[in-house]
Amino acid sequence: MWDVIVVGSGPAGAAAAIAARRVLPRGRVGLVDRAEFPRDKTCGDGVAPHALDVLARLGVRGLLDDWTPVHRLRLAFPGGPELAGEMLRPTYVVPRAVLDARLRAVALGRGAEPLHHRVRTVSRFDDHVVLDGRLEARVVIGADGAYSAVRAAIGQEPPPGRTAIAVRAYVPLGALAKDEQVIALSPDGSAGYPAYAWAFPIGDGRANVGYGELLPASGGTPTRARLLGRLHELLPDVDEPGPFRGHHLPLSTAGTRQPDGRVLLVGDALSLVNPLTGEGIHAAVLSGALAGIAAARAVRGTVADPGRDYRTALRGAYGRHTRHVDLLARLARPRAVAAGLRGVGSRRRVFDDLVDLGLADGPVTASVLGTIGREMASKAVRSVTGRSR
Ligand SMILES: Cc1cc2nc3c(=O)[nH]c(=O)nc-3n(C[C@H](O)[C@H](O)[C@H](O)COP(=O)(O)OP(=O)(O)OC[C@H]3O[C@@H](n4cnc5c(N)ncnc54)[C@H](O)[C@@H]3O)c2cc1C
Fold it and tell me: Which domain holds residue 335?
């Protein structure tokens, strides 16, 4: 009988295993993955400094000290408007083959035990959980990503219209900026929205480039040719065709719910990807850390229901942010986003607040709301009088 089994060894699973072992230094924590590491994960590879803050609180420091930081961010529609500036703290663009292997090595170094296995079934009992009829644990953490078998087994599949799809490739930097994360917003709201292309410099002469959009609620998936066509329209400086890989992003607008009990869902398995920006690594490590602590407390007997304990902790840490970004994502259309960018202009405070909202757990602040509201109001006045307020 394991104390805790974590299914999936991405950022969410590694953080969960590290957190569980901190609370249970002598506990048996298994870290299961179907893949051999290092392994790739289709991603934009953007790592917000806020994710490193969560790791630092788990005692993991210096993970990316050898990596080239990226200081600037540019959000732009083709031909304008745009918003660009230096971020308060730099981000990192780290291929997931590197980031996830490093995090997993930390988890194993802290005493988690690796298990190479593909989980298919989950059986829940009052005081334990059984995976595939043979792996028994007092608590199981499902950190198995966008296509989570654990989530499917406990009946929490996201509803249609709450998942995005994206393609990405590594290309030579060429004419792309080398110290700027570029997000090229689509002016076309006729398909799934938000929709945008990105170019994130890795620091080794290459960039991670890609394009993503919301999948329609009516079903159907855009063809690969269409997604690549949109990428090249929005980022004409990307002259190398690929190879591109695609993957789904389960968005927090899905409202996937953490049930009571001994199976906890974290990261993409709990549909925690930011629906405005597609960022999910910060949510993955934060939810993983909280779930690892709740699982370990249940093993120690200090909480009766780890599912309920974790749900409460996650709501406290992330609830306001999720409500705010979910609302903005439902309202997001190209004209509204363009009005927002115009309104922000050179307002430093609003830019910083938007970075926190897009990359981590920031709420919609009064300054963001005031700026967007003012721009919308002045646009309404212009449309009636032909003059600005
Ligand atoms: C194209 C694209 C671009 C993105 N860009 C960014 C970005 O720039 N920044 C950002 O913050 N986020 C980005 N995201 C989101 C980010 O990739 C995810 O939110 C993040 O990977 C979630 O981490 P995770 O640990 O929950 O899951 P994952 O990283 O997917 O890890 C899941 C692990 O579970 C394992 N697994 C799966 N099924 C099983 C099973 N049945 N049994 C055993 N093991 C299993 C897998 O092998 C994998 O190792 C992007 C996503 C996509 C698709």
Answer: 329-385
